[in-house]
Design a protein that fits this description.
Helix content: 25-40%
Strand order of the largest sheet: 7-10-11-15-14-13-12
CATH topology of the largest domain: BirA Bifunctional Protein, domain 2
Number of helices: 19
Organism: Drosophila busckii
Bound molecules: phenylalanine
Distance between the termini: 53 Å
CATH superfamily of the largest domain: Bira Bifunctional Protein, Domain 2
Radius of gyration: 40 Å
Pfam family, one: PheRS_DBD2
Protein name: phenylalanine--tRNA ligase
Number of domains: 3
GO molecular function: ATP binding; metal ion binding; phenylalanine-tRNA ligase activity; tRNA binding
Main location: cytoplasm
Largest sheet: 7 strands, mixed
């Protein structure tokens, strides 16, 4: 606001009886809203001004009216489209005239500007007069220039044709109030002991309380979107009777991350280009020895109906420590436990949602660490049909009903399927996960009964979170560039439970 505006208003009112804020705005060449704002702050100082509301009605052009002012009325345009001599069929005229041709045609007929010559076949629209005056355009021009005195019936007609509209403006008529002054005294905000003891408080003016003011927002912690989405996934798994696996070990041995999963030691994923290996401590030494021997055998010689890979399996390779590349390492540990627990195998449903690490090239959707959501079911005689049915059930709880599956390859599952879902918001099919039946070469060495099958699937937590929160770049979700406001203001996540 102009710093002097309040005093300029007061000084103006001193010399006149009454003045309308709209006239003041014109006079001072400032926006009317600013004058009203200044009036409000004057009123906060007491009864300096009396302000009575006034309403002003004025005519203004609609968008269509503005178009008529620029190009001419619909009837004049139609007249212009009728060739002077030979005429035109009505259909052609309508096609040439576009959206407003119909109104224009009937008005031009009513004015007697054009006629339909029915003696020709087909009948032709022809000009009836040589010259027209576009009254509508001229009258609208008068309205636009602000000095219109249109006959009431024309105003009514133009309003009906949606060329004109009435605009109501509210203003205030100002006159001097009981406490009128030309300057504003600063309002006190605090009552001090000095004011009380000296009696000064009696002469001072105090700012009134603003009971509508909002309090300062209390500081508190905020959950990151990934954590909110994780809560939802966890809820879904719990509803489906799954129990959570302990995933609190980011560092894993190659044995559990790869060998136990029948991933050959020459597999490119086991390269430092794809996996972060650990230097301190570089190796693990404690493994269930008999199981380790069976893993070695199945890789090098085969067994359980498999030929194996036929290579020289090395303990040193299995001992190498790394940052786990998938939570399936934890699933392997859990399945081994399940096979060897007291009382023997019992059917189980497990899930996990936690961090994994890959030596990735970073881009808009990939970071070197991300979260995996994983589900595992072990039971007698499970089939691919059970996997597909479970996936439908799982994704239905996420609000996703359309799924498609594409054959894929994982060293530890056969068959393997990539999971695609139709995303109605993005209007396309997107890849959401990977799944399969764990191979006998993985399960049998663990000691699971031969008739037990294990179905499993995995997906990233980041992908659904980015879709849900409308984030396009992973760096806007994770890392030093994250806008904390996004975290603070982000709504809680609800995955449209069905
Ligand atoms: N571990 C797989 C996901 C997966 C889990 C379970 C079964 C099949 C696939 C991955 O890293 O993508």
């Amino acid at each position: 606001m102009h710093p002097d505006l309040t005093e300029r208003i007061l000084q103006y009112v001193e010399s006149v009886d009454k003045v309308d804020t709209l006239d003041l705005a014109k006079q001072f060449e400032v926006d009317h809203q600013k004058v009203v704002g200044a009036l409000k702050s004057i009123q906060a100082h007491g009864d300096l001004l009396q302000a009575e509301t006034a309403t002003h009605k004025a005519l203004a052009l609609t968008d269509e009216g503005a178009a008529v002012l620029e190009h001419g009325s619909h009837e004049a345009l139609v007249y212009g489209l009728v060739p002077a001599e030979e005429g035109i069929t009505q259909a052609e005229l309508m096609a040439a005239g576009g959206a407003n041709a119909k109104v224009g045609f009937s008005k031009a007929m009513a004015h007697g500007w054009i006629l339909v010559d029915k003696s020709c076949t087909p009948p032709l629209v022809k000009r009836k007069v040589n010259k027209i005056v576009d009254n509508v355009k001229e009258q609208l021009a008068q309205v636009a220039s602000g000095k219109a005195q249109l006959p009431a019936k024309d105003v009514a007609d133009y309003k009906k044709r949606k060329l004109l509209q009435e605009i109501t403006t509210k203003s205030f008529v100002l006159s001097k109030g009981a406490e009128f002054a030309t300057t504003l005294t600063k309002l006190e905000t605090d009552l001090t002991m000095d004011m009380l003891s000296s009696g000064l408080w009696e002469q001072l003016k105090f700012k009134s309380y603003n009971f509508d003011a909002l309090g300062a927002p209390p500081t508190r912690g905020h959950l990151h979107p990934l954590l909110k989405v994780r809560t939802e996934f966890r809820q879904i798994f719990l509803e489906m009777g799954f129990s959570e696996m302990p995933t609190n070990n980011y560092v894993e041995s190659s044995f559990w991350n790869f060998d136990a999963l029948f991933q050959p030691q020459q597999h490119p994923a086991r390269d430092a280009h794809d996996t972060f290996f650990i230097n301190h401590p570089a190796q693990s030494f404690k493994f269930p020895q008999e199981y380790l021997q069976r893993v070695k055998t199945v890789h090098s010689k085969g067994g359980y109906g498999s030929m194996g890979y036929g290579y020289d399996w090395k303990l040193a390779e299995a001992q190498k420590n790394l940052l786990r590349t998938h939570t399936t390492a934890v699933s392997a540990r859990m399945l081994f436990k399940l096979a060897n627990q007291e009382g023997g195998f019992k059917p189980a449903k497990y899930f996990s949602i936690d961090k994994v690490f890959r030596n990735e090239t970073l881009d808009a959707t990939h970071l070197a660490e991300f979260h995996q959501v994983e589900g595992v079911i072990a039971d007698v005689g499970l089939t691919l049909g059970d996997l597909i049915g479970t996936l439908y059930e799982f994704f239905r709880k996420l609000g996703i009903t359309q799924l498609e599956f594409k054959p894929a390859y994982n060293p530890y599952t056969e068959p393997s399927m990539e999971i695609f879902c139709y995303h109605p918001g993005l209007a396309k099919w997107i890849e959401v996960g990977n799944s399969g039946l764990f191979r006998p070469e993985m399960l049998q060495p663990m000691g699971l009964p031969p008739n037990v099958n294990v179905i499993a699937w995995g997906l990233s937590l980041e992908r659904p979170t980015m879709i849900k929160y409308g984030i396009n770049n992973i760096r806007d979700l994770v890392g030093p560039k994250v806008d904390l406001k996004m975290v603070e203001d982000g709504p809680i996540c609800r995955l449209d439970h069905v």
